[in-house]
Amino acid sequence: MIGNDEHPNCPVCQARFRGSAFCSRCGADLRSLLLLLDHAYGLRREARKELETGDFGRAQELAEEAETVCSTQKGRDLWLLSSWLLSSSEVN
Ligand SMILES: [Zn+2]
Predict the structure, then answer these.
(1) Strand pairing partners for 74?
(2) Which residues are paired to 16 by β-bridges?
(3) Do residues 46 and 66 lie in contact, with contact meaning Cβ atoms separated by under 8 Å?
(4) Which of 59, 68, 69, 88 could lock onto 40 through a cystine, CB 3.0 to 4.6 A?
(5) CA of 37 to the centre of ligand 1 (A)
(6) pTM for this structure?
(7) Are 75 and 63 in contact, with CB atoms under 8 Å apart?
(8) For residue 28, with 0-12 CB atoms within 10 Å meaning exposed, 13-18 middle and 19 or more buried, which class applies?
(9) Is residue 1 scored above 70 in pLDDT?
(10) 25: CB partners within 8 A, 6+ apart
(11) What is the pLDDT of residues 15-50, one digit of tens each?
(12) Residue 74 class from Cβ within 10 Å (0-12 exposed, 13-18 middle, 19+ buried)?
Protein backbone atom coordinates (compact mmCIF):
# COMPACT_ATOMS: atom_id res chain seq x y z
CA MET A 1 0.00 0.00 0.00
CA ILE A 2 0.98 3.61 -0.57
CA GLY A 3 0.93 6.20 2.22
CA ASN A 4 -1.49 9.11 1.90
CA ASP A 5 1.27 11.68 1.76
CA GLU A 6 3.18 9.96 -1.05
CA HIS A 7 0.80 10.60 -3.92
CA PRO A 8 2.45 12.60 -6.70
CA ASN A 9 0.66 14.42 -9.51
CA CYS A 10 -0.34 12.92 -12.85
CA PRO A 11 2.79 13.06 -15.05
CA VAL A 12 0.67 14.15 -18.03
CA CYS A 13 -1.66 16.89 -16.74
CA GLN A 14 -0.38 17.37 -13.14
CA ALA A 15 -3.84 16.61 -11.69
CA ARG A 16 -3.82 15.30 -8.13
CA PHE A 17 -3.09 11.60 -8.21
CA ARG A 18 -5.63 9.55 -6.29
CA GLY A 19 -4.23 6.07 -6.61
CA SER A 20 -6.58 4.95 -9.38
CA ALA A 21 -5.31 3.16 -12.48
CA PHE A 22 -6.31 6.02 -14.79
CA CYS A 23 -6.08 9.79 -14.29
CA SER A 24 -9.49 11.24 -13.45
CA ARG A 25 -8.79 14.37 -15.51
CA CYS A 26 -6.90 13.32 -18.67
CA GLY A 27 -7.39 9.56 -18.60
CA ALA A 28 -3.66 8.76 -18.68
CA ASP A 29 -2.80 5.15 -17.87
CA LEU A 30 -1.13 5.33 -14.46
CA ARG A 31 -0.68 1.60 -13.84
CA SER A 32 3.06 1.60 -14.50
CA LEU A 33 3.42 4.65 -12.25
CA LEU A 34 1.51 2.82 -9.52
CA LEU A 35 3.92 -0.11 -9.80
CA LEU A 36 6.89 2.24 -9.50
CA LEU A 37 5.33 3.96 -6.48
CA ASP A 38 4.75 0.62 -4.84
CA HIS A 39 8.31 -0.45 -5.57
CA ALA A 40 9.75 2.80 -4.17
CA TYR A 41 7.54 2.49 -1.10
CA GLY A 42 8.85 -1.04 -0.47
CA LEU A 43 12.44 0.14 -0.81
CA ARG A 44 11.89 2.97 1.68
CA ARG A 45 10.27 0.55 4.12
CA GLU A 46 13.36 -1.68 3.84
CA ALA A 47 15.59 1.36 4.33
CA ARG A 48 13.77 2.28 7.57
CA LYS A 49 14.25 -1.28 8.78
CA GLU A 50 17.99 -1.01 8.12
CA LEU A 51 18.08 2.28 10.03
CA GLU A 52 16.54 0.53 13.02
CA THR A 53 19.14 -2.23 12.92
CA GLY A 54 21.92 0.35 12.55
CA ASP A 55 23.03 -0.54 9.03
CA PHE A 56 23.14 3.05 7.79
CA GLY A 57 25.14 2.26 4.65
CA ARG A 58 22.54 -0.24 3.46
CA ALA A 59 19.75 2.16 4.44
CA GLN A 60 21.28 4.92 2.35
CA GLU A 61 21.62 2.59 -0.65
CA LEU A 62 17.98 1.56 -0.40
CA ALA A 63 16.79 5.14 0.08
CA GLU A 64 18.83 6.24 -2.91
CA GLU A 65 17.38 3.46 -5.05
CA ALA A 66 13.87 4.46 -3.99
CA GLU A 67 14.61 8.05 -5.01
CA THR A 68 15.80 6.84 -8.41
CA VAL A 69 12.60 4.83 -8.92
CA CYS A 70 10.24 7.56 -7.75
CA SER A 71 11.36 10.67 -5.91
CA THR A 72 9.21 12.06 -3.08
CA GLN A 73 9.82 14.58 -0.33
CA LYS A 74 9.62 11.81 2.27
CA GLY A 75 12.05 9.69 0.29
CA ARG A 76 14.45 12.60 0.05
CA ASP A 77 14.22 13.17 3.82
CA LEU A 78 14.89 9.48 4.42
CA TRP A 79 17.94 9.59 2.17
CA LEU A 80 19.26 12.71 3.93
CA LEU A 81 18.74 11.07 7.33
CA SER A 82 20.54 7.89 6.22
CA SER A 83 23.42 9.91 4.79
CA TRP A 84 23.73 11.97 7.95
CA LEU A 85 23.67 8.89 10.21
CA LEU A 86 26.20 7.19 7.96
CA SER A 87 28.65 10.09 8.06
CA SER A 88 28.16 10.45 11.85
CA SER A 89 28.92 6.77 12.41
CA GLU A 90 32.03 7.02 10.26
CA VAL A 91 33.41 9.85 12.36
CA ASN A 92 33.06 7.87 15.61
ZN1 LIG B 1 -3.75 13.42 -16.02
Answers:
(1) none
(2) 9
(3) no
(4) 69
(5) 16
(6) 0.75
(7) yes
(8) middle
(9) no
(10) 10, 13, 15
(11) 987 778 999 999 999 998 889 989 999 999 999 999
(12) middle
